[in-house]
Amino acid sequence: MRCLCIFSFISITILVLSASQVLAQSLAPATIYGTVVDYHTGEPLHGAHVFLSGTRIGTVTNSSGWFNISRIPPGSYRLVVSIIGYERAPVEIVLREAEQRTYTRRLKPVIYQMNELYVGNLDNRWERYLDRFERLFIGETALADKVVILNPEVLRFSSRWWGRFEAEAMAPLIIENRALGYRIVYHLEEFYHSGTRTRWTGDSHFEDIAPANEEQAEFWQHNREEAFEGSLRHFLLSLTQLQLRQNGFLLYESRRDLHGHYRRNTFRINPERIVRKIGDDHFYHLNFGDRLEIIYACQGEDPRYPRWFEQKNRAPARVQTSYLQLNRRPVTIDPNGEIVETYGVTRFGYHSFQRMADKTPKEYRPENYDPATFRVNNCRPLQ
């Protein structure tokens, strides 16, 4: 079974959070402010991008190196500072309700050799590796057809005869997603594939592409809603609020038998057994045994999924079936519906099929979203 272990850090543009996409609306937002300076001289750095991994929330430093980011939904983030000529400086942070944090980030200069970045042997083998990377990283869903890496020449690949495949980027990847209406700058830190397993981490920032007309704006809105519905984030938000059935999810736990098979040992599970609130900060611990089976009944499978799943002779199912396995116990879910621990879980099935082409910024929600009342169009709550 194909799987995906990718809790990559998705970062942001310098846009503020729109009112229709506010996460955890009942929680008082947090604020971050501070300065960015040269590591050696202490001189302020003007024009540095300061952003939160996994969101579109961020800003740019002024002439004094000062930045201020407000209206941040409480949660777990990675604060990233990026400016040409300096190393990036990420730091893990947890923001509580109404919290104010001050940071001084000291960046070390770095010198890039342009011939290292853009000159290489981009031969036929490199082209084959690029195609493989795009299928693994961008994905093979219907949305992937409208996603393009604008500067693939910065990628370098390595492959081993036993199936190991790795990629590195000598500069940030510029990705244009014309299916969802985003332009993404992705700082790839690690990309690794072996056998049926793929994992990656990195920092990226999203910005909205200006739609050409109202029709295109509606097209992107529709696709974004469909990308969210049934996603892992949608599932985790519904799980922490104990609203799985209302949001179209059925949940089972699977245990391996003596032969390593799951199907004979699958049974319905009460979500209250596996998720527990941590204090009063809207964080949760997720803990379960071998594997969760997640059925989303409000959308059918992408017609391409059976072939990707190596079952090309069957028709797409009317529901989406995914599996979740913990790599450590427990893992933490933050108020944004994100797993805090990098590589904390491995996805199998349909959630593994959905990759960068189906990714929305961390703070994106359908308009007026509330996990307690959310209903997918034309989908009745499960009984």
Notes on the structure:
The chain has six helices and 22 strands. The protein is of the alpha+beta class and 383 residues long. It folds into three domains: 3-9 and 114-208, no CATH class; 19-107, Carboxypeptidase-like, regulatory domain (Immunoglobulin-like, Sandwich); 223-358, no CATH class. The strands form four sheets. Strands 1, 9, 10, 11, 12, 13, 14, 15, 16, 19, 20 and 22 form a twelve-stranded mixed sheet that branches. Strands 4-3-6-7 form a four-stranded antiparallel sheet, with no helix packed on it. Strands 5-2-8 form a three-stranded mixed sheet, with no helix packed on it. Strand 6 and strand 7 form a beta hairpin. The longest helix is centred in the middle third of the chain and has 15 residues, at 214-228.
- Portion of residues in beta strands equals 25-35%
Number of strands: 22
Q: How would you describe the shape?
A: globular
Helix/strand order, N-terminal first: EEEEEEEEHHEEEEEEHHEEEEEHEEEH
- Considering DSSP H and I runs of 4 or more, what fraction of the residues is helical? 10-25%
Mean pLDDT: 86
Biggest sheet architecture: 12 strands, mixed
Structural class: alpha+beta
- Whole-number tally of structural domains: 3
Our count of helices gives 6
- Spans where pLDDT lies below 50 across 5 or more residues: 6-25
End-to-end Cα distance, whole Å, is 30 Å
Determine Rg (CA atoms, Å). 21 Å
